[in-house]
Amino acid sequence: MTRSLLALTTAAFVTVLTEALPAGVLPGMSAGLGVGEAAAGQAVTVYALGTALTAIPLSAATAAWPRKRLLLAGVGGFAVANTVTALSSAYPLTMVARFVAGVAAGVVWALLAGYARRLAPPERQGRAIAVVMAGIPLALSLGIPAGTFLGGLFGWRSAFGAMSAIAVVLLGWIAVGVPDQPGQAGGRVPVRRTLTVPGVLPVLAVTLVFVLAHTVLYTYVAAFLGHAGMGDAVDVVLLVFGVASMAGIWVVGTRIDRALPTLTVLSTILVAVAATILATAAGSPVLVYAAVALWGLGWGGVPTLLQTAAGNAGGDAADNAQAMLVTLWNAAMAAGGVAGGVLLDAAGPAAFPWTLLVLLVPVLAVVLGARRHGFPVVS
Fold first, then answer.
1. Measuring CA to CA, which of 77, 245, 267, 270 is 20 to 30 A from 299?
2. Does residue 376 lie in a domain region?
3. Residue 284 to residues 144, 225, 367: CA-CA distances in angstroms?
């Protein structure tokens, strides 16, 4: 089981790294495609759109497919899209490739948590999801710096070429080392029926608002650190966040199968405490680092907690619930980037942690109010 879960962890790593890599090689990518950095940055936006627009319909259309075939198709999509990106010198073709990569991400994200659950016994399903979700902070804390370094040495195209090579190796790993799992018996469950399953709506609501709150600050963390007089420490701050996120995933993985609602509440509170410190003590570098560590510790396990909650609540419609979560997650990321930009112009970077804190109030209220369905207490 461990090797199979690590293959899924690598799939999560590839998904996040493919999404975020343009940010690390943006100047070179801009020059190579002959466009401005703002236009090159739309590679991330187009990717997110590909995921948000296709995750639900593709999940419904492929509900009866064997899970391994679907996972191979998604990872194969990454291999093709990253290869085209590495070779393309035409901006429109590159954007098409990025959209295809986003579609592949929608397939993979909607699949990973459910696949991990099926590979583990019932009492260890949450831990299995935590192992797979460790690919997220690994990509952000290690993958992006490594891709940026590689791009600096050999050009930005080499970074995408390396991503293609990883995807090809992963295809062989999955084909040989991951057992197949059946699709849903009888085909797809209607999306509308999924929304009527008790507990699904609270989990989706928490996903939307929590991710929005986090993204508002995370997207513009460099601007906030500049406001705090730490503009030259962005890389160190993000490293602290990534390491703390890994610790958060470890903590969640050891307890999630017995204490999902408690962990969700604690994660929300930790991020709220971090926001409070950042809002009131941004002038102290020591307190900023402490706050970022608390933020990472609280946020690191959130993808695992929400994916597990969606799968538990969805029941027979778990794959649909996961697809909806993926769609809302990406929509919240896009909205957070836009809202953060508006907030930056209107109120300045000091408003980011206060906004995060305010948005966490309804998150906490919904989690506490959904203790029967959505985030139930296990006796």
1. 77
2. no
3. 28, 11, 32
